Amino acid sequence: IILLDIESTLLDLGVADVVTATTIADAMLAIDRNRFDAAVLDLHLGRDIWTYDVAHRLKAAGVPFVFSSGTVDVAEGFSEVPLVIKPFATNQLIAALLRVTAGSQSMAAQ
């Protein structure tokens, strides 16, 4: 439900393309096949799957991103990435995305 809410919010705000991925493999493929202006990355997929491999790929590709999570624990090396704690208000997510995309004219989310 949160994924759909984020997608809907971004589309309502005028984001042209929103790409979603629900697995690590799908996210990696999306990064390889698309050029993103920004991404929203949930720290967990399911209970035990961390998405830091995706975060490393985004970082290597130069894609600014924000973490979304119900936890406040972020791995070393990602302290500069904004963390939006669930449940969050739309304005919190937008503020975080604007912070990481400062200077960019458009946003796309994953």
Low-confidence stretches: 105-110
Helix content: 25-40%
Strand content: 5-15%
Strand order of the largest sheet: 1-4-5
Total count of strands: 5
Mean pLDDT: 87
How many helices does DSSP assign? Answer: 4
Structural class: alpha/beta
Q: How far do the termini sit from each other? A: 15 Å
Secondary-structure element sequence? HHEEEHEEH
Please state the overall shape, judged from the principal axes of the Cα atoms. globular
Q: If you compute it from the alpha carbons, what radius of gyration comes out, rounded to the nearest whole angstrom? A: 13 Å
Sketch the major β-sheet. 3 strands, parallel
Short précis:
The protein is an alpha/beta fold and 110 residues long. The protein is built from four helices and five strands.
What would you note in describing this structure?
The chain has helices at 2-12, 24-33, 52-61, 90-100; strands at 39-42, 44-45, 49-50, 65-69, 83-85. With 110 residues, the protein is α/β, with parallel strands linked by helices. Strand 2 and strand 3 (49-50) form a beta hairpin. Helix 2 (24-33) runs parallel beside helix 3 (52-61). The longest helix is centred in the first third of the chain and has 11 residues, at 2-12.
Record keyword descriptors for this entry.
110 residues, alpha/beta, three-stranded parallel beta sheet, two-stranded antiparallel ribbon, 5 strands, 15% strand, disordered C terminus
